[in-house]
Amino acid sequence: QLQLVESGGGLVQPGGSLRLSCAASGFTLDYYAIGWFRQAPGKEREGVSCISRSGGSTNYADSVKGRFTISRDNAKNTVYLQMNSLKPDDTAIYYCAAKVFGCDLTEARYMHWGQGTQVTVSS
Fold first, then answer.
1. Ramachandran class of 30: left when φ > 0, alpha when ψ lies in -120 to 50, beta otherwise
2. Contact status, residue 22 vs residue 5, Cβ threshold 8 Å
3. C-alpha torsion sign, points 6, 18, 93, 72
4. How far apart are CA 37 and CA 41, in angstroms?
5. pLDDT digit string (tens) for 26-62?
6. How many Å separate Cα 91 from the centre of its chain?
7. What is the 3-state secondary structure (H, E, C) of 50-93?
C-alpha cells in the first residue's frame, strides 16, 4: 500500500525553525516529484514547495522563498522541508504529496497524499 507519512511538526516561537519529514512506504519515492502543501484554518490549501525526482529542480511559493528549503534523500525514501524564520502566518497543517513527472505546485496533479502534520508558530 502506497503511503506517505509526515512528521516533525510542533509548536515553535516566531523566528524559530522546524524540519518536516515526508517518508514513503510501499513505493520508491525517487520515481516521484514531491510537493509540500499547507492549509491554515479557514483557508484553502496552498502549495509551499516541490522538488523533482532527482532533486535538481525545486520551486517555492513567494511567501516562503528564502526561508524554507526542500531536499530529498532517495536512499532513505524521505523528503524534507527545512523551515526557518517561522512566522505566525506559517501556522497550518502541512501535507506532502507525490506526483509523476515534474515539480509544480498544482494540487490537482498530485496523486498520493499524507495525513498531514500540524505546525503552530506562536509566542
1. alpha
2. yes
3. negative
4. 14
5. 888 889 999 999 999 999 999 999 999 999 999 999 9
6. 13
7. EECCCCCCEEECCCCCCCEEEEEEHHHCEEEEEECCCCHHHCEE
How many C-beta atoms surround the C-beta of residue 108 within 10 A?
6
Distance CA 26, CA 8 (A): 21
Strand 10-12 to 117-121 pairing: parallel
Grid coordinates representing 77 are: 525514501
Write down the residue that cell numbers 516562503 correspond to: 64
CB-based contacts of 71: which residues, under 8 Å, 6+ apart?
51, 55, 79, 80, 82
Residue type at position 52 = S
Residue 94: pLDDT above 80?
A: yes
At residue 1, does pLDDT exceed 80? no
Q: What phi, psi does 62 have (nearest 5°)? A: -55, -35
16 φ, ψ (degrees, to nearest 5): -80, -175
For residue 90, the one-letter residue type is D
Of the pLDDT bands very low, low, confident and very high (cuts 50, 70, 90), residue 80 is very high
> Would you state the pLDDT for residue 81?
98
